[in-house]
Amino acid sequence: MTGRPLSSDTAMILAAGLGKRMRPLTAAQPKPLVRVAGKSLIDHALDKLAAAGVAQAVVNAHYMADALEAHLRMRKGAPRITLSDERDLLLETGGGMVKAAGLLPEPFFCLNSDNIWLDGPADVFTELSQAWDPERMDALLLMVPHTRACNYRGEGDFHLDPEGKVSRRRPGRVAPFIYTGIQLVSHRLLRDAPAGPFSTNLLWTRAIAEGRLYGISHQGLWFEVGAPEAIKPTEEWLARA
């Protein structure tokens, strides 16, 4: 690793969802344990963290939490894993971060457990760290343009202005960037959060209004792996990489 060091030694992995889009594969296992290219989705994420030098991971769990916890317990080496237990109530993405906040430093990486990507010249955690400015940012989102979003068929999520500030796609329009599910987050984003389940989108909306939500464009490839039919083409891409 060269240049600026990582902004955090800890990442939260959001792994508590019900995995409805991945049915029937999630009828008997949580989505993070679905295998792609011979490895579970969550192990793809954890191995990327380890390779980048992120020492600790906080993983939340709700759906089939026992199976996920057992799998994580069998892992050896980095990162060191702490479970944020949501067995009693699924808190969604925002609520999950708030529940785990006491386990997370300032700032922390956050990523979805179903992410698969190929790094560009630098790993994604270095990309985010190099662009991070805590004086201006509540969160920094890793985006990818349509040309580097494999299997993706949607209309995009966000625009970036010349300074990297984020704005949302307008209804009925196409936006140039897709959110990869990876971000660097300040605890400032979580302030005054509602109790119980809620989406991170609620916090992002406030940060956009305050001019404190930023994004950067990922320089490698990113794979949409939200449904069973995306697994085979993703495996073919990875085999060619």
TrEMBL record:
Coiled coil: none annotated. Residues 11-126 form the Nucleotidyl transferase domain. Keywords: Nucleotidyltransferase, Transferase. The keyword Transferase applies. Pfam families: NTP_transferase. The keyword Nucleotidyltransferase applies. Gene3D superfamilies: Spore Coat Polysaccharide Biosynthesis Protein SpsA, Chain A. This is Nucleotidyltransferase family protein. It comes from Novosphingobium soli.
